[in-house]
Amino acid sequence: MEEMDRYMKAQAPTALRPLLGQTVLAVEDSRFACEAIRLVCLRSGARIRRADSLSAARRHLSVYRPTVVIVDIGLPDGSGAELIEEVARAVPRVPVLLATSGDDSLADAACAAGADAFLAKPVASIAAFQSAVLAHLPPEAQPHGPRAVNDDAVTADTIAYYDDLDHALDALSTGEGSYVGQFLTGVARQVGDGELEGLAHRLCQAPDSAEIAGRMERLLSERMGARLAV
């Protein structure tokens, strides 16, 4: 374990930073979504690491022992539900295991796989994030005394958003329609793009449709063009 991890675990949580001492592993392929999680962790006192795939998460978990694991259901090399089952069965088990997705209908399946709770995207509310984690931490890891509720919302850097669009275009060019649909549903919700979310949902329903894939490619190119115009 790194010296920083030992240092973090030795810190006592406070009312203002209730997750001080916790280390979060975010298994998330979206840089934009992960940036939002990083910001809520920072505001809460937690340290964060990121894995962008199942394979990367498994490598990480073979070396490090986080106290909180957040798993996106749609990952490029498989379903996050597989990893949730593995982490839930591991001994010792991580104290907090959360699932997240832009598709709320996956909540029941995620919890059935072993997740303690489901975080619907976008993950932006500091209060909601803290509550989800604190609800499953053991008493000795909880802050003492009353805790002020932080109603602030975080806003992720738009550079990460455009990186996600570029990633989706690459995946779309290799015929990964189903994955792109899931991926962009979460991204669209994070940024509040109803048009993108609607088309992503259609791509999830018809991942082999050349017509929908073409429309998605054009829409993503338009969104990328807006960045260049700025």
Can you tag this structure with a few keywords?
230 residues; alpha/beta; five-stranded parallel β-sheet; two-stranded antiparallel ribbon; 7 strands; globular
Number of strands: 7
Strands of the widest sheet, in order across it, are 2-1-3-6-7
| Unreliable stretches covering 5 or more consecutive residues | none
Task: Supply Rg.
Answer: 18 Å
Q: Provide a count of the helices.
A: 10
Estimated structural class: alpha/beta
Shape: globular
CA-CA gap between termini: 44 Å
Give the ordered list of helices and strands.
HEHEHEEEHEHEHHHHH
- Beta fraction of the residues? 5-15%
Taking the sheet with the most strands, its summary is: 5 strands, parallel
Q: How much helicity do the residues have?
A: 40-55%
Question: Mean pLDDT, nearest integer?
Answer: 91
